[in-house]
Amino acid sequence: MTTNAQTDVGFHAKQHGRWHWSEFAFWIVVLAVGLAFPSRYLIMTEILRLALFAMSLDLILGYAGIVSLGHAAFFGVGAYCAGLLSVHGIINEPVLALIVGGLAAMVLGFATSFLVIRGVDLTRLMVTLGIALLMEALAERFSNITGGTDGLQGIDIQPIFGVFAFDMFGRTGFFYSLAVLFVLFLLARTIVHSPFGLSLRAIKNNPLRAAAVGIPVNKRLIAIYTVAAFYAGIAGALFTQTTALASLDVFSFERSADLVLMLVIGGSGYLYGGLIGAAVFRMLQELFQWITPQYWMFWIGLVLVVIVLVGRHRIHAYALWLPNLILKQIAGRKAAVALTDNEAP
Fold this sequence. Notes:
The protein is built from 16 helices and no strands. By secondary structure, it is mainly alpha-helical. It has one domain. α3 (41-61) packs across α13 and α4 (72-87) packs across α11 (217-243). The chain starts with a helix and ends with a helix.
């Protein structure tokens, strides 16, 4: 009986983990947009960084149920690590510096995970927020290292692999960020569709029941929190490498809060939610800032209220109503033509 149940679970997990045609279409569209709008490389690179950052939060919020308002702590550590490595010439290869920045954030994530898993939602919110504020205070305190409010000075990112130099138009930064996002997405997708990922879903749904069936709840939460910190650190290092900037703003509360808004827009619990939410959030921000520079936050807040009240699924159904109606009409006409052809002598 147990063997049959395990076989069924493994079969469904394998089926669910297979690539769907819509996933291929998503990445093809992303690449096509990048090639079609070369004048918008800078904002598209920013969207890619936000997408990676949002995906890191989705790993703990959407799959493990760990709420956080201080995810910017790991983003900031990765950003400053990449900047310091560049300023002091310790590591000149951007890809290697990117990995080191992620590892530095991962160490912080592992060290603080023991505090985060001890509480429930409200406690976790306060602990994660406190960690981010503490890191910002430390960065300001040691201004001789971080540059304080002025930020790091003299950041000069060398060409990737000694060949692809960062240009002022952002072309190299865009394709570099896209490659990093895609590789880390593949890794995250493997994680969430593995038995480890299934155990995270069980913990999120009912941690007591998960512990009762033998899942090491705390160890699983520590592991995914550490992985999410690594992803956030990579996003922070990408920020520094593609903008040549690193200041106290990387630890700001607004940066963490924006992630939650992105997941509200795109949805949590599936990796594409963070990617879509980041793109929609940044485009809405750009649109509303162009329409009304003073009150753009009001309109974004209104959009969020509408999403919460109406529901994301209903909005999705409304958006697809007209295309589905057109497809039904086309299918009906094809069926009528086929029936006429069959009846013809």
